[in-house]
Design brief:
With 190 residues, the protein is mostly helical. It has a single domain, classed as LemA-like domain (de novo design (two linked rop proteins)), CATH 1.20.1440.20. Helices cover 78% and strands 0% of the residues. The protein is built from six helices and no strands. The longest helix has 67 residues.
């Protein structure tokens, strides 16, 4: 009888230990998912800061170029119209920012036609500031996309996908935009 009680106690001990290990593993997986979700939010905030800086620089840039090229109003209107709308969905924001980058590229191409503008200290400072902001944006985008990758891996991998499904953790979207500084030079054949 004593043997049966000891055996029963041992089985109960093993069962409780197994339940506790599963519970601890679930808590660790949940905390990892929360950490990844918070890193994605933090990284998005970094991108948003850089996009805001760029958005604030655009009107000054447009005004500087406008002073030299008054008859090119369609380019100015396009840049002003596309400027940041405050959209929070990643895919929509990426599309808007790509359009803005392309418009800024046309604006800089337009500036090439005006040597006085290119030589202007104000224009050079604005151009330099934009290049610096786009470099910072590129770093912020890489950090964000790395955080998204880690989050998505955790949400999709076994066994954390079980916890992710139970607590409704979502996959995050990557942020891809074409920056004016990333545009490749055209091929010229002679």
């Amino acid at each position: 009888m004593l043997m049966l009680q000891l055996r029963g106690a041992r089985i109960l001990y093993i069962f409780i230990t197994a339940i506790l290990l599963i519970l601890v593993a679930g808590i660790l997986l949940y905390n990892n998912l929360v950490r990844n979700r918070n890193l994605v939010s933090e990284a998005w905030a970094g991108i948003d800061v850089q996009l805001q800086k760029r958005s604030e620089l655009v009107p000054n840039l447009v005004q500087t170029v406008k002073g030299y090229a008054t008859h090119e109003s369609s380019v100015f209107e396009e840049v002003a119209q596309i400027r940041s709308t405050g959209e929070t969905r990643v895919a929509v924001r990426a599309e808007q920012e790509t359009k803005l980058s392309r418009s800024l590229g046309r604006l800089f191409a337009l500036a090439e036609d005006y040597p006085d503008l290119k030589a202007s200290e104000g224009f050079q400072q604005l151009h330099s500031s934009l290049v610096n902001i786009e470099e910072d944006l590129q770093y912020a985008r890489r950090y964000y996309n790395g955080a998204v990758r880690d989050n998505n891996n955790a949400v999709e991998r076994i066994p954390s996908n079980i916890i992710a499904g139970l607590f409704k953790f979502q996959l995050a979207e990557f942020f891809e935009i074409e920056l004016t500084s990333q545009r490749s030079a055209p091929d010229v054949e002679l």
